[in-house]
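no rush on this but wanted to send it before i forget. what follows is a protein written twice so to speak, once as letters and once as structure tokens for the fold. mainly i need to know what kind of three dimensional shape the backbone takes. thanks a lot i owe you, the record is right below.
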Amino acid sequence: MNISQYLAGRRIRVAAVTTLAAGASMAGLLGTTGIAQAATAGPDTPHGWVVTDTCTGLAGKITYSPGLLTSSPRKVQAVLTGTTSGCSDIFNGPESGTGTFTAILSGKASVKSENFTGTFTINWPASSGFNPANGTLSVTESGGLETISGQVTSGFATGGEIASQYVITGKTGKGTKAKPVTSQTYTNTQPLNLSRNEG
């Protein structure tokens, strides 16, 4: 049972949402940060983290300066931009239209390895009525899979956490010194989830 189906049946209270999130039926929606631990939390782990907002689609482009090399990592500045789609809020339901995701990143990276930190802004679909969410994040690569994790520090859902994963789908450049990779395209393999501690 997914969130939309559950909401179609009846309006839920925060307490019920918390209980549902701890169940196995929500395990697939939990993010890759400490949120995921809530589903199998022990007595010393705080409960109450719930995926309240999610976008099933996230795709776009990353630009690098200087470009990425295949041979060795080097210090790189990166700008990640993307369009979100299929967004919904656990209390208000589906949101029509699209939004945007932007991250300004820096760190050591090569074509085969990335380790970035930086800041992000999520502009939710206009139909949501939400203010942008701003925060800090990290992007790490393992086996070709890029993992996003971060925390909202201002705007909508301050104190919440974000999580997603994506893969590279294309590139400009060859990864050589003469033709470094200056940009890549990407698409998500996991939803962009925003989780909040609802008690």
Summary: The longest strand covers residues 49-68. The chain has one domain: 52-197.
